[in-house]
Amino acid sequence: MAADGQLTRIRIGSAPDSWGVWFADDPGQVPWQVFLDEVAAAGYEWIELGPHGYLPSDPHRLRAELAGRGLRVSAGTVFTALHRDDPGTWEAAWAHVAEVAGHAQAVGAGHLVMIPAFWRDDRTGEVLEDSTLSPAQWRILADRTERLSRRVREEYGLRVVLHPHADTHVDSEENVVRLLDSTDPDLVSLCLDTGHYAYCGGDSVQLIETYGERIGYLHLKQVDPAVLAEVHERRLPFGPAVGMGVMCEPPRGVPALEPVLQAAQSLGVDLFAIVEQDMYPCPPEQPLPIAQRTRKFLRSCGA
């Protein structure tokens, strides 16, 4: 941290998640114009694109909309199922990744956040496959994650950051470390989401201190411990857990974000730290006041 207490290496932003946006097209979500207006009004300068197709798909139009509000893009997001060895899986995954990466590059992003496939439906709880990967599936996941990261970097100039996520196979400390230890540090970095990692029992500060060279991006999020305990007791999927308020407004939950940000600052590299408070669904008037308070809180932390 700088002598004046400022986190000079941390670039704060927010994302459509914090406005209750999970899908490209959902009449219950706020219109994209409202999201852009309000994220700028809350004091953020950086955003993620959110679900592909939510923001305008024409990069010229989107760049103009962003510039008019003083906003820039840090990353796009993709969901992948790279551990599956079914015919056509890689080709389908790459077609989707290439579409999102091309759009992200065209609007000035430098990162692509990659989220592994869910092993159970995040809304209904339907079990889609085994929650544990076999050794062969781990090898496939590691190999294809490296392959995808290399190709995205070579063809689009973006850095892929893998996002450990609840109800996926890359969730807990054990599974995150297994993936890191199985992949090339030059190719595979993490988007450490503090909320998801706490949701799955991990310690974000410890991960940063132990695997600092693998931390390429941050999502700032907190969980409500009381709600999380009920979620685990009832074995609820992620979607209903969000509906119960498991992801809460900072600084009301865990982990404490100040030590996370300080640990990230100590790495001595520039990092995006994007606020993502999952709130799906939520009333349209709810996100802006929370976003304003959260930005004020993060300023008090030096960010």
Task: Briefly note the structural class of the backbone.
Answer: alpha/beta
- Briefly note the CATH topology name: TIM Barrel
Widest beta sheet: strand line-up:
1-2-3-4-5-6-7-10
Mean of the pLDDT scores? 96
Which regions have little confidence, pLDDT < 50, spanning 5+ residues?
none
InterPro entries: IolE/XylAMocC-like, Xyl_isomerase-like_sf, Xyl_isomerase-like_TIM-brl
EC number: 4.2.1.44
Enzyme class: lyase
Keywords: Lyase
Descriptive report:
Its EC number is 4.2.1.44. GO terms for molecular function: myo-inosose-2 dehydratase activity. The chain is α/β, with parallel strands linked by helices. The chain has a single domain (about 10-300), classed as Divalent-metal-dependent TIM barrel enzymes (TIM Barrel). The protein has helices at about 30-40, 60-65, 90-105, 135-155, 175-180, 195-200, 205-210, 225-235, 240-245, 255-265, 285-300, and strands at about 10-15, 45-50, 70-80, 110-115, 160, 190-195, 215-220, 220-225, 245-250, 270-275. Helix 3 (about 90-105) links the parallel strand 3 (about 70-80) and strand 4 (about 110-115). The protein is globular, with a radius of gyration of 18 Å. The termini are close together. The model has no long low-confidence stretch (mean pLDDT about 95).
What does the secondary structure layout of this molecule look like, with pairings?
Elements: E1 10-14, H1 32-41, E2 46-48, H2 59-67, E3 72-80, H3 89-106, E4 111-116, H4 135-156, E5 159-162, H5 173-181, E6 189-193, H6 194-199, H7 204-210, E7 215-220, E8 222-223, H8 225-234, H9 238-243, E9 247-248, H10 257-265, E10 271-275, H11 287-300
Helix pairs in contact: 3-4, 7-10
